[in-house]
Q: What sequence folds into this?
């Protein structure tokens, strides 16, 4: 069964990916050839060590719960709240942090399990 999260499920966590407070789970991947696959899922960042991530693919996120602070390699910083939508271009480096926790849904141009 694919990973799913019901609305308001702030206690749900995707699989752990980094530090002690970053979680990411791929849920669905398109049937396209590997070079053109689109994968979607959930990302959760909790307070603590920021996650620094360099994208080797294009991705979009919509913030579902909580908050994120995101800072790019140029120093531009934004606080994201539920309903905010972001595009991350291939090659950018983003530092993700949260004062409590943030939960986002993502869609990226990459095969499953390659984040």
A:
């Amino acid at each position: 069964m694919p990973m799913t999260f019901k609305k308001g499920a702030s206690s749900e966590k995707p699989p752990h990916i980094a530090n002690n407070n970053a979680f990411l789970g791929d849920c669905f991947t398109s049937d396209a050839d590997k070079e053109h696959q689109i994968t979607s899922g959930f990302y959760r960042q909790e307070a603590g060590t920021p996650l620094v991530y360099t994208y080797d693919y294009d991705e979009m996120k919509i913030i579902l719960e909580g908050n994120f602070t995101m800072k790019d390699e140029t120093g531009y910083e934004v606080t994201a709240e539920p309903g905010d939508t972001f595009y991350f271009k291939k090659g950018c480096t983003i530092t993700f942090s949260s004062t409590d926790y943030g939960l986002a849904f993502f869609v990226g141009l990459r095969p499953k399990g390659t984040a």
Notes: The longest strand covers residues 22-29.
